[in-house]
Amino acid sequence: MREALKEAGRGFEKGEVPVGAVVVWRKKIIGRAHNQTETLRDPTAHAEMIAITQAAETLSSGKRDHRGSLEQAALYVTMEPCPMCAGALVLAKAKAVIFGIKDPKAGACGSLYQIADDDRLNHQLQVREGVLREEAKFLLQEFFRNLRKEER
Fold first, then answer.
1. pLDDT at residue 152, as a whole number
2. Which of 7, 16, 48, 80 is catalytic?
3. What pTM did the predictor assign?
4. Nearest to 12 by CA among 145, 152, 142
């Protein structure tokens, strides 16, 4: 989670909402990213989506029959994934999602929706919340505090 926080810090420095994510497989980071929706002008450029893409590329590289699934991989992210990101984790068949703070407005791993462990879907993830919660919360609070100051 500390590596995800570092990514969030990079996003903060670039003026992005400071969310960071890393994908871990066999104790190795195989994908890492921060939000880049502003930089790329792409509403889907969430930290999770970029990290998932990197991890899938790493796992499928040089393997014709590997479709990029993230079986046995875990995503560490500073804020609870939204429906898009939680859905991508389910489709990628990730093992787990571990996050810092809940997102009461768009969280899809327990707060607002239950996509990650919905037994109606073909795959469920283990969900763990609250890891380094205060550090993740601080970054987001600072970002939005600074944004409000700029708007005055």
1. 63
2. 48
3. 0.94
4. 142
